[in-house]
Amino acid sequence: MSKYLFIQSQDPFTEQRTRHQFELIGQLHDAGHDVSVLLVQNGVTPARRGALGEGLDRLLDGGVPVYADAFSLAQRELEEDDLKDRVGLSDLHIIIDAMLARGKVIWH
Amino acid sequence: MNVLQVIDQAYRTTTEEQDDTILWLTRSMRGAGGNLTVLLSGHAVHYAVLRRRQPALTLGQWRQTQPAELPRDIAELVASGVPVYAVQEDLEERGLGQLPLQGGVRPIARHALPGLYEQVDQVWQW
Amino acid sequence: MSHDRILTFAFMEPPFESERTITFFRLLDAALDRDVGVRVFAYEGAVALAFAHQQPHGNAVHGRDSGEEAHPLTKDWIQALQEKAQARRIGFEWINCGLCVDERGVNDVIDGCGRGGPPDLWRYASEARNTLTIGTR
């Protein structure tokens, strides 16, 4: 089992590619790997409660750990209570820790 | 260490740099002994079916003389021992699915990508 | 420092165009928080991050002169990270792609930033615990 952390900066409202990116993340999770996602920049926008974001919702429903970067949320005046269930808060140290753990850390 | 280079964009820099800068980077690192694999995805799958040199840019009296040669760059990567894959569904979405791939470029189905990601130590998304 | 405590980052965005630039610098800062040595390979537009002639400016729309505006400059961010690394006695190396520097004319860079090429990225990556690439769009 490998460890993956995807840094999701692209959002589904402007980037059609996110559909395939979320699919790949789900595939790796379904294959039994330790996969998590950190939403950053406009990538946090589908994490807001009520926001459309089928790909992200599927990951959340499938049990993929999803975190949102606190700074990116603050820029958009998003509080933890505004987020969909199961989206956690994080800072960027999660990336450093994943890299030190020799995870495959991939920027989307 | 084996690194997968995921090239997801196309035609960015091909005119002004006279190459794709990530293909160029990959060729250069390969020359330095890098153990690399290339995945063409998104619009970059276009590179797998190109046959000709890029068009030369002309601006006023200025004329480009060395436009990018992407088929050559791909061929030389393959010849240097770098496996090059193109995502089959991305080819099909763009109506390129029936075109012959450049020699040595292998199609890969989207469902097989996790296996490719597992074959390498690191994935460098560009 | 053990290579197990060094991380490599390859970055491509220029100074003032992309939110990725902010995230990238925050990431370097986070690495230093963990006492991790940092090696950066700046490619394409990112070579201008270290350009020594970046200048702050006033902003009439904001109603502030240059001193009041205190405009952020990426060369200052690099210097701040260099100083943080030095204070924590950890490494902070920065190599610009030399050809990218030449074509942009940004040869004059702040101290501590060097010049190299893709083989340096491969060397950095080979020696580091891990590598993250952040491309451009």
Keywords:
heterotrimer; A: 108 residues; alpha/beta; Hypothetical Protein Ychn, Chain: A; five-stranded parallel β-sheet; 4 helices; 33% helix; 22% strand; globular; C: 137 residues; 5 strands
Provide a concise account of the structure shown.
The complex is a heterotrimer of chains A (108), B (126) and C (137). Chain B is α/β, with parallel strands linked by helices and 126 residues long.
CATH superfamily of chain B: DsrEFH-like
List segments of chain B where confidence is low: pLDDT < 50 over at least 5 consecutive residues: none
SSE order of chain A, one letter for each helix or strand? EHEHEHEHE
Describe the strand arrangement of the main beta sheet of chain B, using strand numbers.
Answer: 6-5-2-1-7
User: Percent range for helical residues of chain B?
Assistant: 25-40%
End-to-end C-alpha gap of chain B: 18 Å
Spatial strand sequence of the major β-sheet of chain A: 4-3-2-1-5
Q: Globular, elongated, flat, extended or rod-shaped: what is the shape of chain A?
A: globular
Radius of gyration of chain B: 15 Å
> What is the oligomer described by this structure?
heterotrimer
Number of E-type strands of chain A: 5
Extract low-pLDDT stretches of chain A.
none
Kindly report the average pLDDT value of chain B: 97
Q: Count the strands of chain B?
A: 7
Helix content of chain A: 25-40%
Distance between the termini of chain A: 21 Å
Question: Mean of the pLDDT scores of chain A?
Answer: 97
What is the highest CATH level, the class of chain B? Alpha Beta
Biggest β-sheet description of chain B: 5 strands, parallel
CATH topology name of chain A: Hypothetical Protein Ychn, Chain: A
- Highest CATH level, the class of chain A: Alpha Beta
Structure description:
The complex is a heterotrimer of chains A (108), B (126) and C (137). Chain A has a single domain (23-107), classed as DsrEFH-like (Hypothetical Protein Ychn, Chain: A, 3-Layer(aba) Sandwich), CATH 3.40.1260. Helix content of chain A is 33%, strand content 22%. Chain A is α/β, with parallel strands linked by helices and 108 residues long. Chain B has 126 residues and is of the alpha/beta class. Chain B has a 5-stranded parallel β-sheet with strand order 6-5-2-1-7, with helices on both faces. Chain B has a two-stranded antiparallel ribbon with strand order 3-4. Chain B has a single domain (2-125), classed as Hypothetical Protein Ychn, Chain: A (3-Layer(aba) Sandwich), CATH 3.40.1260. In chain B, α1 (21-31) runs parallel beside α2 (70-79). In chain B, 27% of the residues lie in helices and 22% in strands. Chain B is built from 4 helices and 7 strands. In chain C, α1 (19-33) packs parallel to α3. Chain C is built from 5 helices and 5 strands. In chain C, α1 (19-33) links the parallel β1 and β2. Chain C is α/β, with parallel strands linked by helices and 137 residues long. Chain C has helices at residues 19-33, 66-69, 74-87, 98-104, 118-127; strands spanning 6-11, 37-42, 92-97, 113-116, 130-134. Chain C is globular and about 50 Å long. The N and C termini of chain C lie far apart (34 Å). The interface between A and C is medium-sized, with 20 and 19 residues.
